[in-house]
Design a protein that fits this description.
alpha+beta, two-stranded antiparallel ribbon, 57% helix, 19% strand, binds zinc ion
C-alpha cells in the first residue's frame, strides 16, 4: 500500500512536470508565432510555415526549429497525461479495500481503509475492520 502510494505520488509529480513543461513550450512558441500568423488566412498552414522557417537559439550554437520544439512540447504533454492516467489506475487498484462493520458484520468495499467510517448497512459511525486488500 505504502509503496503503491509512493509510486502514485512520484507518477503524479512526473506527469505534472511533463504536462507543465510541454504546455509551457507550446504556449511560448504560439506566443512568439501568433503576431506573425494571426493575420494570415488560412491560419494553420501559415503557422506551420512559420514554425518551419523560424528557429529558437539556445545559445552555444544550438538551434532548433520551432516546429521541432512544438513536437517535443506536444509529445511531453501527451506523455505526462499518460503518466497521470497510469498513476490514477495504480492508485485506484492499490487502495481498494474490503471493510467489515464490527456490529452487523456486513462487508462493503471502500476506496481506502479508514479509521472511522459510516456503515452502509446499519448506518452507524463505526471503526470498520479491514478484511482484505484486493482489486
Ligand atoms: Zn453495520
Amino acid at each position: 500500500m505504502k509503496k503503491i502510494a509512493t509510486y502514485h505520488m512520484a507518477g503524479y509529480a512526473l506527469g505534472f512536470a511533463f504536462v507543465l513543461v510541454g504546455l509551457t513550450m507550446l504556449i511560448a512558441i504560439f506566443w512568439q508565432a501568433w503576431p506573425s500568423v494571426s493575420t494570415s488566412r488560412p491560419i494553420f498552414p501559415a503557422l506551420e510555415q512559420y514554425l518551419w522557417i523560424n528557429d529558437f537559439d539556445f545559445g552555444l550554437g544550438v538551434r532548433l526549429k520551432l516546429m521541432h520544439l512544438a513536437i517535443v512540447g506536444a509529445a511531453a504533454s501527451v506523455f505526462g497525461i499518460v503518466i497521470l492516467g497510469l498513476s490514477q489506475k495504480v492508485f485506484y487498484v492499490g487502495k481498494k479495500v474490503l471493510l467489515e462493520c464490527p456490529f452487523c458484520k456486513n462487508q462493503w468495499k471502500a476506496s481506502r481503509a479508514r479509521v472511522w467510517s459510516t456503515c452502509p448497512y446499519c448506518n452507524q459511525r463505526v471503526q470498520p475492520k479491514a478484511v482484505k486488500t484486493r482489486e
